[in-house]
Design a protein that fits this description.
about 200 residues, mainly beta, Metallo-beta-lactamase, Chain A, seven-stranded mixed β-sheet, five-stranded mixed β-sheet, 14 strands, globular
Length: about 200
Amino acid sequence: MKLIWHGHSCFSMETAQGTVVFDPYEAGSVPGLPPLDLTADLVLCSHEHRDHNARESVHLTGQRTEVKVEQLDTFHDPERGALRGTNLIHIVTAEGMRLAHLGDLGCIPTSQQLSRLQGVDVLLIPVGGYYTIDGAQAAQLAQSLAPRIVVPMHYRGKGFGYDVISSADDFLSFRSDVISYPGNALEISPNTPAQTALLSAIL
């Protein structure tokens, strides 16, 4: 499995069972990030805000994917969607591993949802706050779910991101296993060591 971070909450997941793009952003919707021009077998969007639903930026191959996809209905805010609406968590199974993309999660999932997320291999989690859970909440959630690999997303970095959201620093301060990568890609296998993987945005 190859995971590629395109910035914000957008990732490509390339596997033997197919390629999936999560939450592509519309050109110009996220300060500092370049337009997307991606190819995939499947596009999954957590909600219909323009920094997460630019399906037109992904060229679909037309090939049938063999990945298994589960969805959990959650909320974009702590008031059951009253502020920003709903949010979908996607759990994708491929190559014998489970990856969860939490989208713009703005609340702590229910106990039943936490049970379904328990022990995923890879957790893509928002950490910037304001629109989503913040660094401390994300750290608590990651600790309770105990994934093997945690990848922070939806935060403000050097030269990119919304001014109102925080950097990843708060979240990372709670993690003792951080590995900073010089690029935006990570190869993942069942033997990849446990870690919090900080990928670099390609601007």
